[in-house]
């Protein structure tokens, strides 16, 4: 199994197979529009701008499981991210990232890269770095700022 074995529905309602990202380093993030970490969209977009031409992708997955911090519709979320943070990286429809209804991708990610004390995602803006071949390389806590991932991203891009 790898990340490439999964698919998800984009924020615009289209099915996207993650196998389309084979050969690219991917950063997968569970996002929220009304969270204290929401300003990380700025840093994520900067990473995307800096590395996208080097086979790097960021995939954003809105989630409303933590403090009801993303209650809007998928359309509202997409508009918010574009208007307030200039997000151009792919965003997907709102998903659960833990529990009985967790999206299978996040069940896989958390089984491959456990967090501190538990494998379950504990808050918005948990990040997973994925290699070009779909292997989960690392998991980062919500507090980890996007700019602090540059070294790991560059290493993954050059291996």
Outline the fold blueprint.
Elements (H helix, E strand, L loop, with lengths): L6 E3 L5 E3 L7 E7 L8 H12 L4 E7 L11 H12 L18 H9 L14 E4 L5 E5 L9 H8 L2
Parallel strand pairs: 3-4
Antiparallel strand pairs: 1-2, 3-5, 5-6
Family: Belongs to the glutathione peroxidase family.
GO molecular function: peroxidase activity
InterPro entries: Glutathione_peroxidase, GPX_AS, GPX_CS, Thioredoxin-like_sf, Thioredoxin_domain
Q: Could you tell me the radius of gyration in angstroms?
A: 14 Å
Number of helices: 4
Low-confidence stretches: none
Largest sheet: 4 strands, mixed
Strand content: 15-25%
Overall structural class, as computed from helix and strand content, comes to alpha+beta
CATH fold node name: Glutaredoxin
Mean pLDDT: 94
Number of strands: 6
Termini separation comes to 20 Å
The CATH architecture category equals: 3-Layer(aba) Sandwich
CATH superfamily: Glutaredoxin
Element order: H for helix, E for strand? EEEHEHHEEH
What is the overall shape? globular
Pfam family, one: GSHPx
Family: Belongs to the glutathione peroxidase family.
Keywords: Oxidoreductase, Peroxidase
Organism: Ornithinibacillus salinisoli
């Amino acid at each position: 199994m790898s990340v490439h074995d999964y698919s998800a529905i984009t924020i615009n309602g289209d099915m996207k197979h993650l196998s389309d990202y084979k050969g690219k380093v991917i950063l997968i993030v569970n996002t929220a529009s009304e969270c204290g970490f929401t300003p990380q969209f700025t840093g994520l977009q900067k990473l995307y701008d800096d590395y996208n031409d080097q086979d790097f992708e960021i995939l954003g997955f809105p989630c409303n499981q933590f403090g009801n911090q993303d209650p809007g519709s998928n359309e509202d979320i997409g508009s918010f991210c574009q208007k307030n943070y200039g997000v151009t990286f792919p965003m997907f429809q709102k998903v659960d990232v833990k529990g009985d209804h967790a999206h299978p991708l996040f069940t896989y990610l958390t089984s491959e890269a456990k967090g501190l004390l538990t494998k379950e995602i504990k808050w918005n803006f948990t990040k997973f770095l994925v290699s070009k071949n779909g292997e989960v390389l690392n998991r980062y806590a919500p507090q980890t700022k996007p700019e602090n991932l540059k070294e790991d991203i560059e290493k993954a891009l050059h291996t």
